[in-house]
Amino acid sequence: MRYLPKSDAERVAMLREIGASSIDELFAVIPEEYRFTRDLSIPRQFGESEIVDHFKAASAQSANGYASFLGAGAYRHYRPVVIDSLVQRGEFLTSYTPYQAEITQGTLQAIFEFQTMICELTGMDIANASMYDGSTGAAEAVMMAVRITGRDGVLVAKTVHPEYREVMHTYAQHQGHEASEVAYYPEGHAQAGRVDLEALEQAVTEKTACVLVQSPNFFGIAEDIPAIADIAHKKGALLIVSIAEAVSLGIMRPPVEADIVSIEAQSFGVALSYGGPYCGVLAAKEKYLRQMPGRLVGETKDTEGRRGFVLTLSTREQHIRREKATSNICTNQALVALMATIFLTVYGKQGMRELALQNLAKAKYAADTIGSKGKLLFANTPRFHEFVLQSDETAEALNARLLDKKIIGGLSLAKWYPELGNATLWCATELTTREQIDAAAAAIAG
Q1: For the domain that residue 398 is a member of, what is the CATH number?
Q2: Known CDD domains for this protein (predicted)?
Q3: 204 Cβ contact list (under 8 Å, min separation 6)
Q4: Tens digits of per-residue pLDDT, 279-313?
Q5: Is 123 within a domain?
């Protein structure tokens, strides 16, 4: 949106139009003691050209020109330019949410198409649109499982994104749910880095509402979803699969054994932007439809047989009685979900497969090359585009050396996995070049 300052004459004209002679008269309904009467302590106003210069200078302070190997739930992928061209059309950009469903057919159809593609990717029957992000999606999925089963035990794999686990614990702490974590196979085991199935089997009981796992997990490793589902279902617990890197679905088998799938769809055309926005989504078996939080759009026909779209289910506290609501999440992410819809439409089924294969190939080259300069953990377990590197020096010291060469290295794992020593999580996507990988390996070698 362009910066359009208002002149004094325009302010006078606007006040006259609404029947007020001054700003003070406009706010006269507010008691005088509550009015802010002095100027704000902020810099003077800028002209448009000054504003552009200001932000250009600020942007020059960022990491432009740096090679980045960060992932861990926030991924750099190419965004086709058509995405911004379409989402900035006024009918999408200026409409907040389809409260008046019948007159927002374009927005409703976009949400319907988004839900349909998510179902095709995950192998689930239904999908909503949407949650705040992957972490709230996973937490809402756990709450959904508790309501469905009537149980309050929750088992979470330690290989789930640590911040997703924190959000889930925040949801659960005042609701009386008992959350326990399940370990992963240690280095040296044939399934190193995956959920410890023996430990999981011992932990699941008749009180367990659900088992929450992530695949690819936080180490980038594909979990054995069929085996985990068997263990959970034998005791009547639901299986929730969280997917932080949605591009993996281009080549990975969808988790059809799951009861609920939680996705972070940021990789589908949503730019990384200082922590947001993101795009969470839940998909599930149809029999759990009534416990799905968020909103669902359905397809129907009007009285003349014409195709139309309606807000079929919306179990939010804004729409139904508070005590009957499944969630208090109220902000609709329709515009962000539209970015993902356009991305998936542009790439198509074959394009998604090729994109995922490119990511896989880049990560393999990076793991082989960079991994040769340290110790590659969980080296023989199948993974997508992230890997764990263990080095002799601390992550802070290693990354400081890399920054001097304009390379942003892997994420330190010491905070969440101290048992892994000086370990860092690295990621390579289709945007990572061979030259960047070679340069990182050379920099690590010193």
Answers
A1: 3.90.1150.10
A2: GDC-P
A3: 155, 211, 231, 232, 234, 235, 237
A4: 999 999 999 998 988 788 899 998 999 999 988 87
A5: yes
